[in-house]
Amino acid sequence: MPLPGPIGTRTLQGIFGNLETRKEYWTLKSRLNWAAFRDRNTSFSHTSTLVRRHRNRIRSIKNSQGEWITDEGEVKNFILEVTEEEIKQGLWALKPFKAPSLDGLHVEFFQIFWPDVKDLVIKEVSDIFESKVIPDYLNETLIALVPKNQRPESLNSYRSISLCNSIYKVVTKIIVGRLRPCLYQLI
């Protein structure tokens, strides 16, 4: 039974309506506005872009010690900085005998000889994060078609396997590891 007086359940529902319904209404309204005005070089389009850019800007971030970094330059450096531990975790997250890279080296090679190749791998991965560019020699991928059955008859009878460079795989693992905690917010 609703509470008597002006703050009763019926009165609140009358004033605010069902919260989920109102949320759905405004979501739909924003989609309709976006569909109608997005590409017309209107003030709506410009305002939407500015609001989204403002909302998506990273102004501060916590480091591994739990301290806030607020300086814009320090925030950029923190995001682009990749640690030895992050690289090692990315490498060990890969399956050792999955498809080798174009040079024929399996991930296990890097895992077994980590003490010997550690400095080179760390430098290569760090350079990629600092320059924000994967060099062409690391970005080359060979696609091999492996038959799914004894007598393949069509392209559907083949499975494609991408032979990516191991360093490329480590970089993507690091990026995935960084995005995973906030993935539910992005989708």
Automatic annotation (TrEMBL):
This is Reverse transcriptase. It comes from Lithocarpus litseifolius. The lineage of its organism: Eukaryota, Viridiplantae, Streptophyta, Embryophyta, Tracheophyta.
